[in-house]
Amino acid sequence: xxxxxxxxxxxxxxxxxxxxxxxxxxxxxxxxxxxxxxxxxxxxxxxxxxxxxxxxxxxxxxxxxxxxxxxxxxxxxxxxxxxxxxxxxxxxxxxxxxxxxxxxxxxxxxxxxxxxxxxxxxxxxxxxxxxxxxxxxxxxxxxxxxxxxxxxxxxxxxxxxxxxxxxxxxxxxxxxxxxxxxxxxxxxxxxxxxxxxxxxxxxxxxxxxxxxxxxxxxxxxxxxxxxxxxxxxxxxxxxxxxxxxxxxxxxxxxxxxxxxxxxxxxxxxxxxxxxxxxxxxxxxxxxxxxxxxxxxxxxxxxxxxxxxxxxxxxxxxxxxxxxxxxxxxxxxxxxxxxxxxxxxxxxxxxxxxxxxxxxxxxxxxxxxxxxxxxxxxxxxxxxxxxxxxxxxxxxxxxxxxxxxxxxxxxxxxxxxxxxxxxxxxxxxxxxxxx
Length: 434
Ligand code: URA
Prior knowledge:
Aldehyde Oxidoreductase, domain 3, Transferase, Pyrimidine Nucleoside Phosphorylase, Chain A, domain 3, binds uracil, alpha/beta, 434 residues, six-stranded mixed sheet, Pyrimidine Nucleoside Phosphorylase, Chain A, domain 2, globular
């Protein structure tokens, strides 16, 4: 086979065969196919697309490029969750203990990530001593005994995706449906869970800006996942404003703990109840959605979910004092309110820009090796649809210095669109694709 012929075939809109896709991915992973040819292929796929069969074969070829985690030694159903990414997304911290408290185990591999805040792993480092460097054996044992674990990836899962994703990033080929589907699913399949729930974000702070694109992605993910023999459900959710109120590492942990204590009832909890319902039903722990939701609500109300979270922090070496007393989490010394100029109603809060405020304060990484500040960030006081009086606080900036706080305050004010007439809050959960 010659790569030039495959590029030409895709350029002309033809479908690639299983053998051709496997040969290409194996060759690229081994370094036999150069980046310039793979770039041309990625661009051809970007313009000509791939049908479901090709997308499935690409997913499986990337899955087979590296190691796979074997969860079969763990008893019961194992679930995993993935989000296409958003601002203020601390869902895993709330969802995993809720689901584990209801008897379905969650085996989660997570990253540090670039961007507005750190990844889940960075956030968890708000607990002194907490470690995500678990051996595979310790990870499996903890999932079995505690009910969930969140660890950094140790095995070399999907090296083909790592290489191809880096290439897509610099060749303007990230936003291609088959490339996104195969990239997300190969990693989820390699992580070994039986039930996979995907949170597909839609809106200005997301990858898929329109609802139509988000639903297309959700349908493609569930279809390819099913072909691979997994139970996959995708939930399409709004990302036109940040999720919850907190954006920043320790601030998000604090909000997650409030949700686990039952003190937070907003969009974050709605999302956790919706995703958790899909997991309990697909995992066979509940007979229908109504029972699943009631079980999850009871796990929060009874304190079982918070206790599960404390067990998890302890099992991974963390100090649990802050689980019960969030005032012990890292705190920034400077806090200032951001007053609204004119009064009215909040029509929009530009999620991406709120993320940038947190990043400017030091809460996120611009480059892989940057240090992040766990304490800084933003806590929104207003969300879309809320009424605002002139001078009322839109949010609070948590910063290290007055100077950075003042600059961030100006940026945060600009994230808000305030209009004179009442605004109806759009539905947060757009739909569930099974
Ligand atoms: N997340 C991934 O892991 N891959 C993509 O291509 C897009 C989002």
